[in-house]
Amino acid sequence: MRTFLPAVLPILLLNAARAAERPWKESALPTAAEIASNFRTPPPEYGMVLWWGWDGPMTGAVIARDLDTIKARGFPAVMIEAGYGMKHPYLSPGWFELVRFAVEQARLRGMRVWVEDEGKYPSGFAGGKFSAERPDLRMQALVVAEKVAVAPGETLARALPPETVGVIAVNLADNSSLPLKITAGQLRWKAPEGKWEVRIVQHQFRSSPTRAVNNPTRGKDTNNSLCDYLNPEATRQFLAWTHEQYKKYIGQEFGSTFMGFMGDEPDYTIQGLPWTPAIFAEFERRKGYDVRPYAASFFAPRMTDEARRAKADYSDVWSDMFAANFFQVQADWCAQNDLQYIVHLNHEDMLMALVRSEGDYFKNMRWVHVPGVDAIWNQIWPGTVADYPKLASSAAHLFGRPRAFTESFAAYKILPTVEQAKWVIDYQLARGINLVQIMFYSSSANDSGPRQPSGFLGSEKFPALAQYGNRATYLLSMGRPTAQIGVYLPTSTMWLGDEEANKSTLAVVQKLLERQRDFDFVDEQALSSVLTLQKGAFRTLSGNQYRAILVPGAAVISRAALDHLRAFAKSGGRVVFLGRTPTLVAEPSILKAGAPGDFGWAVVEPASEITAQVLAALPQPDVALDPPAPAVKYVHRRWRDAEAYFFFNESDQPQSLKAVLEGAGKVQLWDAASGAISLLAGATQEKHSVRVPLDLPPYGSKIVVIGVTGR
Description:
Distance between the termini: 43 Å
Number of strands: 39
CATH architecture of the largest domain: Alpha-Beta Barrel
Largest sheet: 8 strands, parallel, barrel
C-alpha cells in the first residue's frame, strides 16, 4: 500500500482536476443541489447539437447569421459538416480559416462546436486525398477477382498473379465446392462431371462507397477511396491531413469552445472481406494457424463447418485490427489534445449486417469517448421495436464514459412534427442516450439573407422542445448508471452466420424492457477483461454492478469469458443460458474450439424467453409497476444523494400506475419542459423503496427524483 499510493496519487489528483475543469468528459457524481443549480439553464456542453451543413458560398456574414439563428432555436452547440458548392474546398486553407472564424463566433455566443471528421461520409477518405496522394494506403479487400466457367473434362491451366490468395471450384448444380491447389503460382485443374465455375480470390484495392463533397455528381461511388482501416499508418496519415490541420487553426480552443471530432459510419460495405498486408501474419500470431488455405472457401456458396469456423476466426482478427488501428489511434490523439472522439457505426439496427461490415460494435467503441448510434429512415418511430440505442449506452457504461449519443432524423421518410420528434428523442433517452444530435440545418441560400430552418426545426414549437432536450440530457448525464443485468451479445456466434442468435437476443431484450428490467449489453472482451468481480457482482468502469448475466443464443464463447462467468456464479452471481448452451469454446481459435464441459453451475432455460425461472434468477427490480405496463420504459441514474428516474410512455394510451421505486427520502418531479422542481404528492415511504403515483399521458415523460433534502 505504501508503494502504491505515492505513485497513483498524483494521477488521481490530476484526473480529479481535469474532471472538475471538463466535467462532461468524466463520470461525475454530483449532489441533487448541484444539479438543480444548473437545471434551468444547463451548461452548453450537455445540450442538444444541431448538424450544420455548410452548403454554398460560406462567408463570415453567413456564419455569424447562422449561429444567431441556431442559438435562437435553442441549440447551444453545432456540428459542422462540409457541404456542396463551397467557395473554399474542403481541407483547403480557406476551409480551415472559415472553421476558425466559426469557432471564434461560437465562443462569443457561449456556444460549443463539433466538426465531422470527413467531407461527407463514411469517415476515412480525407476528402479524396488517399486516392489522389497516397493510393498505397487505400482500403483493401479479399475479393473474387475472376470467375471462369469450366466444362466437364476441360483443363484450366494458367499462371496466377502474386496477389492471388486461393482458388475454389464451385459446382453450380449443387453449390458444393472444392479448394484447388496452386503450385509455384500455377493453377492446373481438370473439371469432373458437373457445372463448374472456378473462382480466383485475390487481395485488391477496394473501397466502400463514399459520398464525397468534392464529387461533382454529388452521388455515392468509389472514386474517393477510404483508407486502409486496418493499417495504423493510414490512420495517422488521415489525422495528419485533418485533425493536425485543425489544431494549427483552432488548437487554442481545443477542450473549451471546440469539443471534438465526430466519425460517421466507418465500415466495410464491400463485396469481399477486409484485408491488409499484415493480416495473415497477425492472424497466425493470434490464432496459431495459417488461414490462407481456407481463404478462398470463404467465398463458397455453401461453406463447410470447418471453413465457417475459420472465417469466424478471420472476423475476430480483422475486427481487432479495426478497433486498434483505426478507432483507438484517433481516440488517443483526441485524448492527448483535450478533445473527445464521438462516432457511430453503420447498421446498428441490423446486427447481422453490422458484424459483416464492422466486425464487433463493442470492440470498436471500447476506445471511443462518446459511443453512438444513428436513427435514420424512421428506424425509430411509433409502432416499431428498435432497442438498438442500448448498444451505445451499454458501451458507455462498460467503458466508463458519461455520454452516449444519437444522430437523429436524417433521411426520415415521414417528416416528423415537433411532437413526433419529441417521441423519437424520448424513446432514445429511455434507452440510455444522453447526447442528441439533430439533423439538419443547411446554410444554402443564406448568403442572400437569414433563413429559418425547415421542417419541425422551423416550427414555432421547436425552441420549447430544444429547452426540454437540453435539460433532460443534462440530468441524464449526471451520476452513474444502475443496470444490474448484463445481456451477453453473441457476436462471435453471429460471425458463424447464425441468424437465430441475433433473433433470440433481440427478443430477450425487448421482453426485459417491457418488464422494466433494465440491462446493459456486455461483450466478449468486457467479460474477459473489463468487468471486475466483486462479491457476486461484475462491476463496470462506470460503477454499476451486474448481479445476473443472461446469455441468449450463443453457440460459441471464449474460454476466458466462460471462466469468468463460472467464477462470477461461484461468487454468488447468477448466469442464465437461454435457448441453448454454447457447444464451442474458443481458446483462442474457433476453428480448434473445444467442448464447454458441464453447465451445472448456471441456470439453463431451454426456451429463449423470460420465463418464471429466468425472472427468479434476476436481482430485485428497482422499478415495479402496478398494473404491468409494457409501453412504459425508464432509465435510472444514481446521484450522490438521490435516485433519478426518467419515465416514458411510448403508447398513445394514458398510463395511470402505482410505481414502487428504489430509494428513500423526499420525492420530487423535475420538469424538463419548464425547469421547475416540485414535490410529488401521494408518495409513501416503504422499507427500501418509495411508492408513488405515476400518471403518464399518451407519449408523455416524467422525471422523478428521490432522496433530496431542502427545496
